[in-house]
Structures are given as C-alpha cells and as structure tokens.
Amino acid sequence: MSANEISDTSGGLVRSKRGVPEGLWIHCPQCKATVYRKEVETRAHVCPECTYHFRMPAKDRIKHLLDEDSFEEWYAELKPVDPLGFKDRIPYSKRIAEEQAKSGMNDAAVVGKGFIRGRPVVLGITDFQFMAGSMGSVVGEKLTRIVEEATKLKLPLIIVSGSGGGARMQEGILSLMQMAKVSCALAKYDQSGGLYISILTNPTMGGVAASFALQGDIHLAEPGAMIGFAGARTIWNTVRLELPEGFQTSEFLLEHGFIDRIVHRHNLRTEVAQIIDYCEKT
C-alpha cells in the first residue's frame, strides 16, 4: 500500500487526497489575492496583481540592489548578548537563539560594501525577520562602523531600513544609546562631505525612524511603507488623537515634505545609481 492510499471498511483501497504543501501560496494584504509565492519572490517580493511590496529579506535585498556577486559582508561575526539578564515570556538569551535559528542571521543588520551599476557603495540593511528588525547593540555597532568606514573610504552610504520594533527593549538603555551613537557617526560623515541615501521600507518605526533612518541627504521610500515613531494605535491609546487617513504612509510623508521620492522596488537600483552620479557632479 502506498503512502497516498488507505483501506476502507470493506478492505478495498481508497486513494487519499494530496494536500497542498504549506507556504506554496501567500495572501496579498492589499488586493486580497492569493498569489504563488515563487512568482512573488521572482518579482522582487512584489505582488503580481497589485504591485504591493511584501517585506524583503536582507539576502534578497542585496541581490536585487547590488551588482551580482559584488557584496562583501563586514562584521558578520558580531552577535548579541544578554547584558541585563532580561526575561519576559522567555529569557532574552533564549529568544536570541530562537531568532537566529529561524532567520539564519546573527542579528537584525547586514552590512558591507558592494557596487550598484559599477559604483562602489557602503551598504547597511535592517531586516524585519530578526526580532522585527529592532535595534540592539549589535545593530547600532554595525551601522556605526560602516558609517565610519564610508567616511574613511569617501564612499556613498546607503542604509535600507526595515525596522518595526525600533530600539530593542530587552537591552534597555544599551539599545537606546545606539540612536545617538549612529547619529554622531552620521554627523561626522556629513561634515566630511559624504552622500547618505536612506531607503525606507515597510515598516520603519520607533527609534530607527527617530534617528538614522530620517537623517539622510536623500530619503527614498517604497510604496505603501509605514514610516513614523509611534503607531496609530499607540497614539490613540495615549492622547486619544484621531489621525488623518493614510497617516504615516510613504505617500502621506511625501505629500507633507518628509521624504524626497517614492520609488518602486524594480526601479530602485537605477534611481540610486542616478542620484550618486548627479551628486558626484555637483
């Protein structure tokens, strides 16, 4: 008897139904269509029906944004620790281990050097799949180091933010101080004449939005990205303030002058290369 056959009560064979493998199809939150996961991934994690931009893992972001095989990762060995012995539902040390096993990453930031259409750049990415892309000591340290390297090498700096968690509460003040640390490095980079392009993806919130994500020379955002400090629900629960429709979306921020341009993911590499070329000539 095969694995797809079972016996009925009379002793005969009845072929069982084959189930659909889990994760083969995904639901688009914007158009509500059920779409084939592989097709979404080949389209740079963009819905083929409505162009909704799904969250994009750092490894795929690197392949999409940089020239093929041009990325040189830096500081990959840095790993988080549990300096406060923090425990909520589970100990922070255990949470870290679970997140590392699930994501295949040591922490929420991937940084290094690469090329965009032949132009050398320093790149940092915060990835939502590791603790919602929250900023702990390792994320802050990695970003600070690449800003300092970009200053020394006199290269354009690109940081792609995808942090829904802001500063990581499990590290307390050690997490919050990363906001100031990265900001100080960016100030020195700016004084040296460096070009910092900040790319805002869904979501970019909390301490990340309150520090390095909105300190760029040029701010590009993906369509429909949520960008802000406190979310709408938090604002309502604290100050009972009704917010305008579309508040904190990239479209709302563009209309009110907080960002420079909304760029579809398929056009992002070309757009960044053109900005670098233009700024180098001016």
UniProtKB/TrEMBL annotation:
EC number: 2.1.3.15
Pfam families: Carboxyl_trans, Zn_ribbon_ACC
Domain CoA carboxyltransferase N-terminal span(s) in chain numbering: 24-282
Residue intervals of every C4-type zinc finger in the record: 28-50
Keyword Lyase carried by entry: no
Recorded GO MF terms: acetyl-CoA carboxylase activity; ATP binding; carboxyl- or carbamoyltransferase activity; zinc ion binding
Cofactor(s) this protein cannot do without: Zn(2+)
Catalytic activity: N(6)-carboxybiotinyl-L-lysyl-[protein] + acetyl-CoA = N(6)-biotinyl-L-lysyl-[protein] + malonyl-CoA
GO cellular component: acetyl-CoA carboxylase complex
Listed InterPro entries: AcCoA_carboxyl_beta, Acetyl_CoA_COase_Trfase_b_su, ClpP/crotonase-like_dom_sf, COA_CT_N, Znf-ACC
Record Gene3D superfamilies: 2-enoyl-CoA Hydratase, Chain A, domain 1
Keyword field contains ATP-binding: yes
Keyword terms of this UniProt record: ATP-binding, Cytoplasm, Fatty acid biosynthesis, Fatty acid metabolism, Ligase, Lipid biosynthesis, Lipid metabolism, Metal-binding, Nucleotide-binding, Transferase, Zinc, Zinc-finger
Residues that coordinate or bind Zn(2+): C28, C31, C47, C50
Localization annotation: Cytoplasm
Domain of life per record: Bacteria
Record's cofactor remark: Binds 1 zinc ion per subunit.
GO biological process: fatty acid biosynthetic process; malonyl-CoA biosynthetic process
PROSITE patterns in UniProt: COA_CT_NTER
Pathway: Lipid metabolism; malonyl-CoA biosynthesis; malonyl-CoA from acetyl-CoA: step 1/1
Subunit structure: Acetyl-CoA carboxylase is a heterohexamer composed of biotin carboxyl carrier protein (AccB), biotin carboxylase (AccC) and two subunits each of ACCase subunit alpha (AccA) and ACCase subunit beta (AccD).
Family as reported in the entry's similarity comment: Belongs to the AccD/PCCB family.
Summary of the function given for this chain in its UniProt record: Component of the acetyl coenzyme A carboxylase (ACC) complex. Biotin carboxylase (BC) catalyzes the carboxylation of biotin on its carrier protein (BCCP) and then the CO(2) group is transferred by the transcarboxylase to acetyl-CoA to form malonyl-CoA.
Name of the protein in question: Acetyl-coenzyme A carboxylase carboxyl transferase subunit beta
Annotated organism of origin: Telmatocola sphagniphila
Species lineage: Bacteria, Pseudomonadati, Planctomycetota, Planctomycetia, Gemmatales
